C-alpha cells in the first residue's frame, strides 16, 4: 500500500487544541472501548494495584474504569480543556500543581490521588518525571502521533515500561490513500520494526 501520502503530514498541537475548542472530537468514545474490556486480562495479567499509563489520553473514560478497579492511572494530554472535562464529567474533585521540570506545564490530580493527568506534550516527559508503568493503554495515541515522530514516541514509551509490563495497542486499518488521518495508518510491519 502507498502510505507515502501520509508520511510527511503533520497535525500541530495548535490544531489539536482547536479540535477540543470546537468540540470536533469524534475520536472520544462515551462508552469506553470494547477492546479494553476484551483484553483486560492481558493488560492486568492477574496483577492488582498497577500503575497504568494513558499516552495522549484526551478524556478517555477507560481511565475512570481502571481507577475504579483499584489501579493508579497516569495520563498525558496537551489540551487542558480535555482534562478538566474528564474530571467534571465524572464528578471527580481534583487539584492542580505546576510541574517544576517543565515550564508552563501542570499536573491535575484527583483528590483521591489515583488519577494524575499531566497537561503538557508527551515529548516533554521522561521516566524521571513519570516513573515506570506496569501497563499501557495506547488507543488513539500512536495512531495520532505524526508519522515523522513515531520512532521518538516509541523510544520514549519503552523507557516508561517496567520489566513485566503489558502494552495494549489499538490501530486502525483503512486505505491511507483515501483518508489523510489522523488516525494515521500504521501497518503491522511498522509496528514490528518500531517496537522490535
Ligand atoms: N486516547 C484518547 C484521545 C485520542 S485523540 C482517546 O482514546 O479518546 C489524540 C489526543 O492526543 C488528542 O486529545 C490531542 O489533544 C492529544 N495530543 C496530540 N499531540 C499530543 C502531544 N504531543 N502530547 C500530548 N497530547 C497530545
Automatic annotation (TrEMBL):
| Known catalytic reactions | S-adenosyl-L-methionine + a thiopurine = S-adenosyl-L-homocysteine + a thiopurine S-methylether
Q: Which residues are listed for S-adenosyl-L-methionine binding in this entry?
A: 16-27, 56, 77, 121-122, 139
Q: Where does it localize?
A: Cytoplasm
Kindly report the protein's main subcellular placement as a broad class.
Answer: cytoplasm
The biological process GO terms on file are:
methylation
Instruction: Please tell me which top-level EC class this enzyme sits in.
Output: transferase
Q: Which UniProt keywords apply?
A: Cytoplasm, Methyltransferase, S-adenosyl-L-methionine, Transferase
| GO cellular-component term (any) | cytoplasm
Known EC number(s)?
2.1.1.67
Provide the GO MF annotations for this entry: thiopurine S-methyltransferase activity
Q: Does the keyword Lyase apply?
A: no
Family affiliation: Belongs to the class I-like SAM-binding methyltransferase superfamily. TPMT family.
**PANTHER family, per the entry:** THIOPURINE S-METHYLTRANSFERASE
- This chain belongs to the protein called thiopurine S-methyltransferase
Q: Which organism is it from?
A: Rynchops niger (Black skimmer)
Question: Its gene?
Answer: Tpmt
